[in-house]
């Protein structure tokens, strides 16, 4: 939510610190800040209010209270400090609620209002936090919501039916298929799980409870009498309604987060008074149903010892008392036992740990001191990890590369209820298909990577209808075509290597076309228990280099060179001669015949900007040939 | 021609993590990737109406409403505590799933590292010490750790963990604070349901993205590369 520094300032007599200081204080003592922006002469903070604190912190009053504690700055006028004010009851409206999801509903009648533009201060305040000004009535309700956290809604009483001068507001469950058109014109078809506000005399839907007002009773230029709603709707029901209709509003967000019902009483009075102030008119009176008692929260006890043991600190009772005093909550602190009675709005202070957290964050989590861990042996070794590492390094030793592939497939045994995409609707029951696909994809990269064969493996989880197991799958693709050899000697080499390293021959689940799969879990039962891990060899620092997405082109060259030339020297000459497009020179073979030495190389060309045409590689080769000629070598 | 193969950066990271944590007695634990809702949410103090249970975040399995693809490695905390009595020092590197659109920094499947340490007097000071020890070894430079207030249902107090790698030439990430993960003191409700008496034992838990560790360590610019089997990527490691 966006918060204005100028708005926060209205709670304090003393000037607040600069925006940078506020940003730092809020970050380390309260909530994460996404962004701070200048808006006119104001600074606006985009604060990520945490879900557990959203019932009271999604408001300027909430953040002002945080600042009061963090900065130890007294609030000049905390609107929640005193018991809520009320208006005299009016008999011009009656209220009923028949749904359990609304446990408090109040309405104030304000007559003689003039709908028009909001005063400049109100427009500026809302504008700073990104709210468009609509008219003085709607702006007043929005202001109170962002000020206190209580959603309000203004109905045009003139658009409701009055019987003998009396309106009736009824809160009830919606009927299945009942239609609702919101203030902004969108239409919704409701279910019995939604709650609605209705004109009790006509049974017409006026608003989707806790979410949004309807078009039929919206305030416009002709409005002179307002019925102002301040209510409390149950959090889960509101969340489900909002989700069902894909309609999250500033109001629904606050109910979802469990604002306390007592807040509605403060909201009604603040809202009605503000409307009277900015739109003229007079508050005729109010009517309410539901429990009006101010929520009493149970005291929470915690010992000084517990507080210290959670943070690894050694605070004294006096030091903790300085912190708890800043909150201004009711507390006792005797014999190192602290008992705090949270105010009605703090639904997040229930157990000792909640209070410990409050003390810790206000003391400063950055002051926690590191306790260096003591070395000790592990109680047991993970044999799956141990043997996976052993297999991995054995395969790497004979040139295999390890890949990870997706757990999801287009079709298999176990189906995902809510797949991300139609080609990811199932869990893999084998690694074979994934590895085959990876093998095929990599064939065209062989020259680029200087490989004669694609040799890959994966160690990963596969899923049966009930089972889940770790498998190992390896693939060799040595032919020049995309079709693998039936009897791939490199597969046999890999299996021999594994048998040597493990002392056990893996039982293969499948072995065809150069792809072999076996179960790691099944293998583990045949292997000795692990008592210690092998050391991980630290490699030199690796920095990943982004690679070109364009295909490469290869050209082979064979030539007679001087007997004294080494492969490295020739490669250097070829590299220099072939320029920046040549990304790899691979030595293919060397032989000597009749006192002459022949060397063959493969030059691989690739651009970072485009797909190279064969002719572009050929052009480079022409200059390579001329360099070779200059050296007195002879192209074969 | 001799060619030596290449290890996937994530399995390299897992092996290094295990080596570092094993030196200070942390056991490498595991749990299923297809997990019971009970372990993934209920026993972790995630209320039934919590937004993270929504369909857009969690993969559910067809015809099995009691199962999800685990959304984090935290259920392994519960499983481990049910099977082992304190003192506990445990890590769990493992694959997790989120029903989210993918881009260069998000994948629907990725790896997390869970950590759990429980005893009679384990504090956030211990957590700071363990994390500084781990990161300093992992990045090969002195690393500082700091905490900010945060919230996760399974911890209280909850913190956000930032780290700062000591300034090194040529490393853009060094010398500045990097937001890394969520952590905190295990919630007493979680200890309770996992059979650990919260009046006697306490401790910390953390969960961080391992892909992010690999990104920081190797400078990978797109985490999708980790899961597509492309040797132009893997063979750089």
Describe the structure.
Chain A: Residues 295-370 form the B5 domain. Chain A: GO terms for molecular function: ATP binding; magnesium ion binding; phenylalanine-tRNA ligase activity; RNA binding. Chain A: One of its GO terms (biological process) is phenylalanyl-tRNA aminoacylation. The complex is a heterodimer of chains A (636) and B (237). Chain A is elongated, with a radius of gyration of 37 Å. In chain A, α5 crosses α6, α6 (136-148) runs antiparallel to α9 (262-279) and α7 (235-244) crosses α8. Chain A has a five-stranded mixed sheet with strand order 4-7-10-11-12. A five-stranded mixed sheet of chain A has the order 18-22-23-25-24, sandwiched between helices. Chain A has a four-stranded antiparallel sheet with strand order 6-13-5-14. Chain A is built from 19 helices and 29 strands. Chain A has 636 residues and is α+β, with helices and mostly antiparallel strands. Chain B has seven helices and ten strands. Chain B has helices at 9-23, 37-40, 75-83, 124-139, 188-193, 210-218, 231-234; strands at residues 27-28, 34-36, 60-61, 64-69, 88-97, 109-119, 143-150, 155-165, 177-186, 202-209. A seven-stranded mixed sheet of chain B has the order 1-5-6-10-9-8-7, sandwiched between helices. Chain B starts with 8 loop residues before the first helix and ends with a helix. In chain B, 56% of the residues are buried. The mean pLDDT of chain B is 92. The chains are: A alpha+beta (636), B alpha+beta (237). At the A-B interface, α2, α7, α10, α12 and α13 of A face α1, β1, β3, β5 and α4 of B.
């Amino acid at each position: 939510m966006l918060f204005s520094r100028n708005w926060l300032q209205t709670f304090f007599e003393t000037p607040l610190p600069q925006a940078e200081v506020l940003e730092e204080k809020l970050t380390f003592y309260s909530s994460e800040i996404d962004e701070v922006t200048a808006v006119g002469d104001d600074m606006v903070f985009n604060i990520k209010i945490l879900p557990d604190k959203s019932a009271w912190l999604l408001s300027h009053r909430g953040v002002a209270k945080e600042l009061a504690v963090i900065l130890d700055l007294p609030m000049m006028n905390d609107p929640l400090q005193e018991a809520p004010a009320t208006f005299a009851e009016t008999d011009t409206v009656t209220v009923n609620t028949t749904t359990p999801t609304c446990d408090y509903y109040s309405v104030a009648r304000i007559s003689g209002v003039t709908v028009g533009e909001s005063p400049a201060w109100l427009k500026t305040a809302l504008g700073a936090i990104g709210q468009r000004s609509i008219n003085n009535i709607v702006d007043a309700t929005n202001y109170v919501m962002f000020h206190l956290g209580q959603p309000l809604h203004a109905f045009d009483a003139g658009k409701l039916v009055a019987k003998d001068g009396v309106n009736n507001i009824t809160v009830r469950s919606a009927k299945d298929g009942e239609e609702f058109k919101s203030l902004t014109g969108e239409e919704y078809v409701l279910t019995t799980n939604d709650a609605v506000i209705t004109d009790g005399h006509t049974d017409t839907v006026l608003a989707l409870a806790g979410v949004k007002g309807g078009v039929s009773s919206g305030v416009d230029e002709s409005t002179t009498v307002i019925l102002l709603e301040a209510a409390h709707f149950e959090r889960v029901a509101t969340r489900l309604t909002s989700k069902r209709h894909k309609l999250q509003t500033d109001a629904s967000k606050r109910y979802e987060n469990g604002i306390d019902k007592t807040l509605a009483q403060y909201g009604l009075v603040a809202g009605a008074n503000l409307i009277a102030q900015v739109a003229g008119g007079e508050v005729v009176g109010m009517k309410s149903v539901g429990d009006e008692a101010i929520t009493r929260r149970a005291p929470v006890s915690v010992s000084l010892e517990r507080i210290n043991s959670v943070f690894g600190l050694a605070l004294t009772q006096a030091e903790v008392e300085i912190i708890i005093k800043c909150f201004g909550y009711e507390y006792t602190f005797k014999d190192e036992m602290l008992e705090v009675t949270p105010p009605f709005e703090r639904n997040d202070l229930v157990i000792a740990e909640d209070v410990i957290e409050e003390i810790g964050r206000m003391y400063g989590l950055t002051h926690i001191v590191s306790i260096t861990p003591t070395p000790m042996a592990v109680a047991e070794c993970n044999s799956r990890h141990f043997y996976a590492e052993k297999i991995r390094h054995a395969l790497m030793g004979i040139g295999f590369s390890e890949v990870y592939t997706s757990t999801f497939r287009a079709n298999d045994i176990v189906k995902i209820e809510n797949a991300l995409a139609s080609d990811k609707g199932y869990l893999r029951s084998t690694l074979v298909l994934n590895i085959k696909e990876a093998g095929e994809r990599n064939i065209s990269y062989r020259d680029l990577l200087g490989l004669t064969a694609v040799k890959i493996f994966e160690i990963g989880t596969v899923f049966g209808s009930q089972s889940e197991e770790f498998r190992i799958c390896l693939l060799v693709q040595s032919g020049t075509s995309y079709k693998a050899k039936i009897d791939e000697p490199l597969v046999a080499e890999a299996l021999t290597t594994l048998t040597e390293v493990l002392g056990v021959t893996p039982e293969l689940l499948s072995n065809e076309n150069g792809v072999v799969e076996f179960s790691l879990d099944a293998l583990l039962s045949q292997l000795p228990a692990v008592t210690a891990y092998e050391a991980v060899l630290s490699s030199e620092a690796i920095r990943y280099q982004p690679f070109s997405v364009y295909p490469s082109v290869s050209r082979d060259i064979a030539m007679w060179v001087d007997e004294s030339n080494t492969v490295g020297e020739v490669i250097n000459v070829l590299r220099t001669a072939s320029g920046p497009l040549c990304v790899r020179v691979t030595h293919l073979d060397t032989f000597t015949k009749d006192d002459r030495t022949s060397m063959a190389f493969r030059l691989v060309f690739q651009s970072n900007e485009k797909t190279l045409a064969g002719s572009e590689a050929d052009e480079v080769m022409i200059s390579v040939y001329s360099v070779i000629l200059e050296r007195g070598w002879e192209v074969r | 021609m001799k060619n030596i193969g290449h290890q996937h950066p994530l399995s390299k990271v897992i092996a290094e993590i295990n080596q570092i944590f094993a030196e200070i007695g942390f056991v490498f634990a595991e749990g299923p990737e297809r997990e019971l809702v009970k372990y993934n949410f209920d026993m972790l103090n995630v209320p039934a109406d919590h937004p993270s249970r929504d369909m857009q975040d969690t993969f559910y399995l067809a015809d099995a409403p009691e199962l999800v693809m685990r959304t984090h490695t935290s259920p392994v905390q519960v499983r481990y505590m049910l099977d082992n009595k304190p003192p506990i020092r445990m890590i769990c590197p493992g694959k997790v799933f989120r029903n989210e659109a993918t881009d260069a920094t998000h994948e629907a499947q990725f790896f997390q590292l869970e950590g759990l340490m429980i005893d009679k007097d384990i504090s956030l000071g211990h957590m700071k010490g363990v994390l500084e020890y781990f990161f300093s070894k992992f990045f090969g430079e002195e690393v500082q750790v700091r905490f900010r207030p945060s919230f996760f249902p399974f911890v209280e107090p909850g913190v956000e963990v930032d780290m700062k790698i000591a300034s090194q030439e040529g490393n853009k990430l060094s010398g500045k604070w990097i937001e890394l993960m969520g952590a905190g003191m295990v919630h007493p409700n979680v200890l309770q349901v996992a059979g650990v008496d919260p009046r006697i034992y306490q401790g910390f838990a953390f969960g961080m993205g391992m892909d992010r560790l690999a990104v920081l360590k190797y400078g990978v610019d797109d985490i999708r590369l980790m899961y597509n089997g492309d040797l132009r990527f893997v063979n750089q490691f």
